[in-house]
Write a structure and sequence with these properties.
The complex is a heterodimer of chains A (about 300) and B (about 350). By secondary structure, chain A is α/β, with parallel strands linked by helices. Helix content of chain A is about 40%, strand content about 25%. Chain A has 9 helices and 12 strands. The longest helix of chain B has 22 residues, at about 325-345. With about 350 residues, chain B is an alpha/beta fold. Chain B contains 14 helices and 10 strands. In chain B, the strands form 2 sheets. Chain B has an 8-stranded parallel β-barrel, surrounded by 6 helices. In chain B, strands 1-10 form a two-stranded parallel sheet. In chain B, helix 11 packs parallel to helix 13 (about 305-315). Classes of the chains: A alpha/beta (about 300), B alpha/beta (about 350). Chains A and B meet through strand 7, helix 6, helix 7, strand 8 and strand 9 of A and helix 14 of B.
Chain lengths: ~300, ~350
């Protein structure tokens, strides 16, 4: 049995709690601390019941007490993470940032997982980014993409107050990741909230304008897309194509759906599930890199 | 004698009308239409991609001109009216709005689905700080009861909206629906916050519903010269002004100038007549976002299905504005189902 990285989850809300359940199953990362700011919070109580050491006075106090996790997952807010990032950097602790603060390089788990294994801080972009950038990349690894555009439609109930108060953060950060990680020369992102009851599953449409056309190109793109879907399914089993990709001249249109695992969040919140699943995957990759083989 | 009712009209031919021309108006079109509208005396002229700032996309259709060229052409052509742009948070951003201000807009209309007003807080707040006349726009308002619409309108009011619109994006409301919603907002919002109404003519009720809205206290009404707009179009400016004149509703709009703008300037630039046809009537009947019309036509043709079937299915799934990608997905599903049925029939 290999030693696991000892991790702290900061933020005991929905995301932090769902992440905890995923990490509790991990062979590589052990969620040892749950850090919140409200001793009465459901998330902290639940974490305590599951055997985590709970702290209700925030990350700075945890560090002041001399606690040094191997790894910190931050599921608070962009504003809080800016402070946390500085403290963690000073303490030399690796941080996986699930907020849109973007203090470190972007990581899309399905695409550039191994790129920043020694970085002290990595950013998980957005839920829409984790779900759609792999598709842009799948097209891009076959043919040049002059423009990548994604439309993420999520259930209203799965968009928390943080997302709602700064929805531009979602569109701008996702668009940037389409370029930087997806490889499109220009990126655009759109987000739609749908209030239908029962809540809809997260669905995303990905459009790519490609540099070459023709049946053989389409065929190779199709194969690449299907390979990528299978790859994402290895850590997000509910990730699937809604229909076959459609090719029309230089336009590729891909439609996917993300059903969550339902660890803590409801299954319709595939957008949040793909975030916690991706963060878990990144944490495990860090652990594989840091824990010597054979230990 | 002062008129019993006074309303300020916003013409949306250069924004909602963009849906009806697949966002292909040129800078010259924009100049000609803006100039003609400015002569009518409308209080406000809205211009943008049909889906607002940042709307030019594969999802909604690429605009012919850049936002900069289009908006500058409009702003330079208008001397009397206030030029507004539309912004849907989730599509356009605060940065898009700041750029549009540089192009010359003086008002912004921030639109959300009727249950999602809280995504507009940031945009409305920044717009007010920038000194823009700021309007909240609650789309697909037929989908929620008046009490719910009031909750959402009060959110927009609290963020700083100076007008809150009841938006019948699907052209699905009958008169009682309009009266109940406008009256509820009028009663609930502070007196200095105006109530507006935006119609689509899918059920042939745009003019009469707009009049009903005025009677319930709406002081801002959206019209479009020649009705140019998504679905069966918006409330035709020239018709609404004629009706208002007969009813003693003061609009400040010159009837002949409105007729001229409609018939001499806008109608010759239509790519298809704006009429109540089978699909657009289906939209009003099933409560589907009017901008889906031309997308549904195209998908129906591409996948060999009836556009009405697509629209009814979209209505059943409670698809909201902006989900144009669902049109293709539903068309594909319907086509596959048809193939399966045909296959069974052959056995």
């Amino acid at each position: 049995m290999a030693t696991k990285l000892q991790a702290a989850i900061v933020g005991s809300g929905n995301i932090g709690t769902d992440l905890m359940y995923k990490l509790l199953r991990s062979q590589w990362v052990e969620p040892r601390w749950m850090v919140g700011i409200d001793p009465e919070s459901e998330g902290l109580k639940r974490a305590a019941r599951l055997g985590l050491e709970v702290n209700a006075d925030g990350l700075p106090k945890l560090l002041e007490r001399g606690v040094r996790p191997d790894l910190v997952f931050d599921a608070t807010s962009a504003k809080a993470h800016v402070r946390h990032a500085k403290l963690l950097r000073e303490a030399g602790i690796q941080a996986i940032d699930l907020t849109p603060a973007a203090r470190g390089p972007y990581v899309i788990a399905a695409v550039n997982l191994g790129d920043h294994l020694d970085a002290l801080n990595v950013n998980m972009v957005t839920c829409g980014g984790q779900a759609t950038v792999p598709m842009v990349y799948a097209v891009r690894r076959v043919v040049g993409v002059s423009y990548g555009e994604i439309v993420a439609t999520i259930a209203s109930k799965s968009a928390g107050p943080g997302t709602r108060q700064n929805i531009d953060e979602f569109t701008e950060t996702t668009a940037k990741a389409i370029e930087v990680i997806g490889g499109a020369r220009r990126g655009k992102a759109i987000i739609i909230l749908n209030p239908a009851e029962p809540p809809i599953l997260m669905r995303d449409t990905i459009y790519c304008l490609i540099d070459e056309t023709g049946d053989d190109v389409y065929e190779r793109i199709d194969q690449s897309i299907r390979d990528m879907v299978r790859h994402v399914q290895s850590f997000v089993p509910g990730y699937r194509l809604n229909r076959d990709p459609i090719y029309r001249d230089n336009l590729v249109s891909i439609s996917i759906e993300v059903e969550g695992l339902g660890d803590f969040l409801p299954v319709y919140a595939g957008n949040l599930d793909i975030m916690t699943a991706a963060a878990t995957k990144v944490g495990e990759e860090f652990a594989k890199h840091r824990i010597p083989v054979g230990q | 004698m002062t008129a019993k009712y006074q309303v300020k009209i916003t013409d949306v031919a250069l924004r909602d009308g963009m849906h009806a021309v697949r966002h292909q108006f040129t800078v010259d079109d924009a100049r000609a239409i803006a100039t003609a509208l400015d002569k009518t005396g409308v209080a406000m002229i809205e211009a943008a991609h049909g889906d607002g700032l940042g709307g030019s996309s594969v999802q909604y259709g690429m605009a012919k001109e850049t936002e900069a060229d289009y908006l500058q052409a409009v702003c330079q052509s208008v001397q009397h009216s206030t030029v507004a742009a539309l912004l849907l948070p989730g599509i356009g951003t605060v940065e898009d709005m700041k750029r549009a201000v540089e192009y010359g807009i003086r008002a912004i209309r921030i639109a959300t689905h009727c249950t999602e007003a809280d995504i507009s807080e940031q945009h409305i707040g920044v717009a007010r700080k920038m000194g823009l006349f700021t309007v909240g726009f609650l789309m697909m308002a037929h989908m929620v009861p008046p009490e719910k619409l009031v909750e959402e309108a009060k959110k927009m009011e609290s963020y700083g909206a100076q007008v809150v619109y009841v938006v019948d994006s699907a052209g699905a409301m009958v008169e009682d629906d309009v009266r109940a919603r406008v009256a509820a907002l009028r009663a609930a919002l502070a007196p200095e916050v105006e109530v507006g109404f935006h119609a689509h003519n899918n059920l042939g009720l745009s003019v009469s519903n707009s009049v009903a809205a005025v009677k319930e206290g709406a002081t801002r009404i959206d019209c479009s010269a020649a009705g140019l707009g998504a679905g069966s179009g918006n409330t035709p400016l020239e018709v609404f002004v004629a009706v208002c004149n007969k009813m003693g509703i003061e609009t400040g709009v010159d009837l002949y100038a409105a007729m001229d703008a409609a018939e001499d300037v806008v109608r010759p630039r239509m790519v298809r007549p704006v009429i109540i046809d089978k699909p657009s009537l289906t939209m009003g009947y099933a409560g589907v976002y009017s901008s889906f019309l031309l997308h549904a036509y195209r998908a129906a043709e591409q996948f060999g299905v009836d556009p009405r079937d697509i629209l009814v299915e979209l209505g059943r799934r409670k698809v909201v504005g902006g989900q144009e990608d669902m049109i293709v997905d539903v068309a594909v599903e319907l086509a596959n189902r048809k193939k399966v049925l045909a296959g069974q029939g052959a056995q």
